[in-house]
Structures are given as C-alpha cells and as structure tokens.
C-alpha cells in the first residue's frame, strides 16, 4: 500500500510566498494582458492629443501636456471597470499562481484599481500601510500588475519577514512623524521587487507596503486588485463580501452547500 503526504501542496511559488510574503511571476494569458494594454491605449488616444500615437509609450505620458491627470485617472478607472471582461481577464492572467497561493475557490475585489504616477508626482502616492489597518481581511493578497516597467524606485515597497518589532516601530514612527517617518525608520528592511511589463507582483496585504513620490524619469501605470479564498474570514463592514468582494470561482459542491445554509 502506498501512503501519501501533503508535500504535493508545496511548490516553488508557494514556498517563496511563505518565506517572503510576495512573489513575482509571469502572466499566463498574454492575449488578455494585451487586451488590457489596448483598452488603456485606446482611451488615452481618445482623450489626449498624442503625436505619433502608434509609437506612444505609456511611460512617456509626462512628455505630453496633460491638463488634469487626476480626472484622466478617474475617467480611465471608471471606463475599465464598466467593461464586463476586465475582471475575468485580469484573473485569467494569474489563475495558476492564485491556485497555488490562495486556492481555486475565490472572491475578487469588485473594482480594479488604477495608478498613474508621473515623475515627481505625489498625488497618487500610497503611504506605508497594511490593508488590515483599514479593517480588510488578513487572508487576502494584492495582485499588482504594472503596465510599464518598474524602474528607479517607482514601484511598491514591501516589508517582508515582518515581525512584531517592525509593527511597533511602524506605529511609533506614525505617531511621531507620519508615513514619511515610518518609511525612514523601516527603509533598511523595505524591498521594492523588480516587476517588468508582462509580470505581476502578488503579495500578502497584511504586510506593510506603499510607494513614494515617483523619483524616476518615467511615468508609471499600474493596476491592482485583491483576491481571497471564499472560505477565509471577511474583513469588517464595507470590506466584506458584497460591498468589497464578489464570488468568482465557486465549485459545485460549495454552491450546493451554500444553498443549504
């Protein structure tokens, strides 16, 4: 008789996530990703006068006079989220990775978030935080998809191997001088994973993370959203199933079980 253990549950991706709290992996659905790029490009060409539009690169947006980048960001965010294909397409780009790290019965955030950071721009900077600080579930992951290469510290900073001492240092610094002070205190332990176009960063959203005003000479475009096992505890209030998440990939047995509740 052959006995089995649970070693088959582990693989290089999940081992790396357990160790570091984040992974960077290639996108699985290249056609789907190209569809996302095309949708963003089409929107920009329709609302901004772009010379030589066929050769325009998102990372060069700052070279074009843009009157109101915040309005463009909000309009593009709404445009993408009105498209019924955007969430399933995003999911298809990382399905196998999520299967390994989170599971295959998932809930997905109702919206896909958009960030556009021009050089020196602090308006869309995300100060250091952990999602659990705002009442979100500690069982979710953030999937962060850049549409431009991450260069020169214009990506996401993460605190891997987070300890209770790190957390205490963070809160003391916040009380003393806000997010900037916290960044200074923790800077030696923060990492900024390199993520190229066609790759995605998946990280534990309970880890302290954030960005700084774009110090590079390139505009950074990125999308992000969150995934959680449908069986894992929700966050609180508006961060729960319904207002924040929606069911995505339930198996038949789970669907029947929910009907019997």
CA-atom Rg in angstroms:
19 Å
Structural class: alpha+beta
Low-confidence stretches: none
Task: Please indicate the count of domains.
Answer: 1
Fraction of helical residues: 25-40%
Give the DSSP E fraction (strand runs of 2 or more residues).
Answer: 15-25%
Average predicted local confidence, pLDDT: 90
DSSP strand tally: 9
Tell the overall outline.
globular
Distance between the termini: 39 Å
Say what the CATH topology is. Jelly Rolls
CATH superfamily, by name, is q2cbj1_9rhob like domain
Q: What's the CATH C level? A: Mainly Beta
Specify the biggest β-sheet. Answer: 7 strands, antiparallel
Tally the helices: what do you get? 7
Named CATH architecture: Sandwich
Features of this protein?
261 residues; two-stranded antiparallel ribbon; Jelly Rolls; alpha+beta; 7 helices
Write structural notes for this entry.
It contains seven helices and nine strands, in the order H-E-H-H-H-H-E-E-E-E-H-E-E-E-E-H. The chain has helices spanning 12-20, 30-47, 69-82, 86-92, 95-101, 164-186, 252-259; strands at 22-26, 106-109, 113-117, 141-146, 157-158, 199-204, 209-210, 220-229, 245-247. The strands form two sheets. Strands 1, 2, 3, 4, 6, 8 and 9 form a seven-stranded antiparallel sheet that branches. Helix 2 crosses helix 3 (69-82). The N and C termini lie far apart (39 Å). The mean pLDDT is 90.
